[in-house]
Every structure is written in structure tokens, then in C-alpha cells.
TrEMBL record:
<comment type="similarity">
    <text>Belongs to the radical SAM superfamily. PqqE family.</text>
</comment>
<dbReference type="GO" id="GO:0051539">
    <property type="term" value="F:4 iron, 4 sulfur cluster binding"/>
</dbReference>
<keyword id="KW-0004">4Fe-4S</keyword>
<dbReference type="InterPro" id="IPR006638">
    <property type="entry name" value="Elp3/MiaA/NifB-like_rSAM"/>
</dbReference>
<dbReference type="InterPro" id="IPR000385">
    <property type="entry name" value="MoaA_NifB_PqqE_Fe-S-bd_CS"/>
</dbReference>
<dbReference type="Pfam" id="PF13186">
    <property type="entry name" value="SPASM"/>
</dbReference>
<dbReference type="InterPro" id="IPR011843">
    <property type="entry name" value="PQQ_synth_PqqE_bac"/>
</dbReference>
<keyword id="KW-0560">Oxidoreductase</keyword>
<dbReference type="InterPro" id="IPR007197">
    <property type="entry name" value="rSAM"/>
</dbReference>
<keyword id="KW-0949">S-adenosyl-L-methionine</keyword>
<keyword id="KW-0408">Iron</keyword>
<dbReference type="InterPro" id="IPR050377">
    <property type="entry name" value="Radical_SAM_PqqE_MftC-like"/>
</dbReference>
<dbReference type="GO" id="GO:0032324">
    <property type="term" value="P:molybdopterin cofactor biosynthetic process"/>
</dbReference>
<feature type="binding site">
    <location>
        <position position="23"/>
    </location>
    <ligand>
        <name>[4Fe-4S] cluster</name>
    </ligand>
</feature>
<feature type="domain" description="Radical SAM core">
    <location>
        <begin position="5"/>
        <end position="230"/>
    </location>
</feature>
<dbReference type="GO" id="GO:0018189">
    <property type="term" value="P:pyrroloquinoline quinone biosynthetic process"/>
</dbReference>
<feature type="binding site">
    <location>
        <position position="26"/>
    </location>
    <ligand>
        <name>[4Fe-4S] cluster</name>
    </ligand>
</feature>
């Protein structure tokens, strides 16, 4: 069956891997991109122009910490001028009275602010930065005072899973309109720290109950998005809405990827915006075409009535868990490798091991 190629809808612009925080669940790759390889302002402007011509509607400025790039307001202004909806995905530790006005003036539409925990000591232990929590609270205050829509993002893992009710209360107190209670996804540093981060089945049940209770308590005031850990599901998520269907990810050095973890896929060339156009990469590159649609699917996906709903799950998870990116996502209970997921959960350590913090491999690749 020939696949209809849709236009990408969202672009995730990973401006940099630099970040003042060191979260052990970061989805950035283990080999972080040094500053010297980052795209220039002009190169990012060209990416935005091309994305807009292709029909992209929203751009998410992300990282690392995108506010580490001094040209962020210029890029936001350019995106707004193209009619793109602009979202800033930030840790908030660099968003303050000095830096925020330039983003407001540039026309930024939305801020998504992440928290490591509602408990300050644990949040700063996990993020590896003293004083970060107060800076985040101040960032939230500034965004709300401006009237800009604010979404808070709490990443859930074993050490903070019991505090979901307090997180939701805090989101209301901070004036957020939307909050994401998102269990860690196990890619990049999250995968490296899986044994320390994975919640127990009991914790998952409690977080689900807490979210349901808060949805009633705060109905009409707060929208709660809830992301559960894939490993406890019996059907996979439709990762990225399907490979190469609606989503395009640009890495700090300009690699064009179908998802944030695609750089783990072996034996394929990674296209980049320094050597090819975005439109050509989207349509014809081997990376984007290899798992697009359903023709690549093995059994049982090939004969499954869910194949155009979940698109066979997540390719990067299939690679991480089954050693084959073209395998059925082992999260699916119908997958031949499903036992591997079950084994991960059955062998969770009673005492979580210490974190391996997100760090640059070489001291010369400074993060400031
Ligand atoms: Fe999805 Fe494949 Fe599982 Fe069917 S067999 S539910 S298509 S992952
Ligand atoms: Fe790559 Fe899911 S993260 S396909």
C-alpha cells in the first residue's frame, strides 16, 4: 500500500543540549552535542522558514535548556512572523525579570515549565542544582502575571510518585491552566537510570487515583494530562503519532529526526539541514521512510486491527528492549518480546540504585 505523505504539523527545535540542570531522566542522548556544533541563528531561521513552507503550524523551542541560547527571542520573533504558534519548553531557571520581557516582546504564545518535584530538597537533588526551585516558582509567577498561558510539567519517578496530590495543588496555586503529570519515559538518560526511576505497580495505581481525584476537585479550573509509564501498559502508545507522519525534530547540530530518540537507530544515515532541505528529508530520506506507514511492519502488527492506531508503538523502545527497531514494540502484550518488559518490572530493585546524572562527557564541552 503506498503511503500518503502528510505535512508535518509540529516541529521540535532542540536549540542546544546545554542546561544548568542534570536530571537523570533527561531524554537527550547520552552523547550530548557540544556548543561548537550547534546551528547558528541564521541556520535556525532557515529551518523555521522551510518548516512554515511545508505546513508546520507549531514550533516547540526545547533543549537542553533553550534559554541558554541568547538568540531565542530573535528565533521566537521570526517564528511568530511566519504565523507559527510558539511554545517554550523550559526548566525556568534562566527565565527571570531580565530575560522574560524579550520573549514577551517577541510574541511568545505559551510556556511549558518543568518541575522535578514539589518538594524543594528532592527537586534540587534530582536536578542537581541548588536554588533551582525558587527560580522556577519565580518563572511561573512572571508568566502568569503576564497573562501568558502556562503549562506545568511534573516528571514522575519512584522518589516523587507519592507526592502527586501536592503537585496538583501547587499547580493550581501557581495559576497554571494545564498540568502534565508525566511518568518518566525511558529513553536517553532515563533509560540509563531506569532501575532508579521506575515506580512500583502500587505507586502507579496511587498516581492514577490522585489524578482522577484532582480532575474532579479542579474541574473547570485545571486541565490535567496524565502520561503513564509504557512498561505497565499492555498496548503501546502511538509514538509521535506514527513515524514521519506529523512530527519533525531538529537536533542542536541540525540533524533532522522523526523523534527525539531516533539517533539510537543503527545503520541509517542521519540527514541534516546543513546538507539537504527539510522538505526533501521529510519526503524521501531513508530515515523518514524506513518506518512510515504500515508496510515495514512484522507480524503480529501486520495483521492487527490496531496497526493504524498505534503504528506498532515506538521504534526506539523496540530497539532499546528487543535490540531491533523494526520489531513490534515489546510493551504490546502481543509482541514476541513482551516478556522482556515483564522481566524489567519483576526485577526492580527494592532499594533504587544511585542516579547517573546527565553530564557532558568531556570537561571542555562547558554547559554555560
Ligand atoms: Fe499495536 Fe502491533 Fe500490538 Fe497490534 S500487535 S496492538 S499494531 S503493537
Ligand atoms: Fe523514537 Fe518513539 S521515541 S519512535
Amino acid at each position: 500500500m503506498t503511503e500518503t505523505i502528510l505535512s508535518p504539523m509540529s516541529l521540535l527545535a532542540e536549540l542546544t543540549h546545554r542546561c544548568p540542570l542534570q536530571c537523570p531522566y533527561c531524554s537527550n542522548p547520552i552523547a550530548l552535542e557540544p556548543r561548537r556544533n550547534e546551528l547558528s541563528t541564521q541556520e535556525w531561521i532557515s529551518v523555521l522558514d522551510q518548516a512554515s513552507e511545508m505546513g508546520v503550524l507549531q514550533v516547540h523551542f526545547s533543549g537542553g535548556e533553550p534559554m541558554s541560547r541568547p538568540d531565542l527571542p530573535e528565533l521566537v520573533r521570526h517564528a511568530v512572523g511566519l504565523g507559527l504558534y510558539t511554545n517554550l519548553i523550559t526548566s525556568g531557571v534562566l527565565l527571570n525579570e531580565k530575560t522574560f520581557p524579550a520573549l514577551v516582546a517577541a510574541g511568545l504564545d505559551h510556556v511549558q515549565l518543568s518541575f522535578q518535584d514539589v518538594d524543594t530538597a528532592n527537586a534540587e537533588h534530582v536536578g542537581g542544582m541548588k536554588g533551582a526551585q525558587a527560580r522556577k516558582m519565580e518563572a511561573a509567577r512572571l508568566v502568569v502575571a503576564d497573562g501568558m498561558p502556562l503549562t506545568l510539567n511534573f516528571v514522575i519517578y519512584r522518589e516523587n510518585a507519592d507526592r502527586v496530590p501536592q503537585m496538583l495543588d501547587a499547580a493550581v496555586e501557581m495559576g497554571a491552566r494545564r498540568v502534565e503529570i508525566a511518568h518518566t519515559q525511558y529513553y536517553g538518560w532515563g533509560l540509563a537510570n531506569r532501575a532508579a526511576l521506575m515506580p512500583t505497580a502500587r505507586q502507579l495505581e496511587q498516581t492514577t487515583q490522585a489524578v482522577e481525584a484532582a480532575r474532579e476537585k479542579y474541574a473547570g479550573r485545571l486541565t490535567i494530562d496524565y502520561v503513564t509509564p509504557d512498561y505497565y501498559a499492555d498496548r503501546p502508545k502511538p509514538c509521535m503519532g506514527g513515524w514521519g507522519r506529523r512530527f519533525i525534530n531538529i537536533s542542536p547540530s541540525g540533524r533532522v529526526l522523526p523523534c527525539h530518540a531516533a539517533e539510537t537507530i543503527p545503520n541509517v544515515a542521519f540527514p541534516d539541514v546543513r546538507h539537504d532541505t527539510l522538505a526533501h528529508i521529510w519526503r524521501d530520506s531513508p530515515l523518514f521512510t524506513m518506518f512510515r506507514g504500515t508496510d515495514w511492519m512484522p507480524q503480529p502488527c501486520r495483521g492487527c486491527d490496531q496497526r493504524e492506531k498505534d503504528w506498532g508503538g515506538c521504534r526506539c523502545q523496540a530497539l532499546a528492549l528487543a535490540g531491533d527497531a523494526a520489531a513490534t514494540d515489546p510493551v504490546c502484550s502481543r509482541a514476541p518480546d513482551h516478556e522482556r518488559v515483564v522481566r524489567v518490572l519483576e526485577t526492580l530493585p527494592v532499594e533504587p540504585p544511585p542516579f547517573r546524572y546527565r553530564r557532558y562527557a568531556r570537561a571542555t564541552d562547558e554547559v554555560g
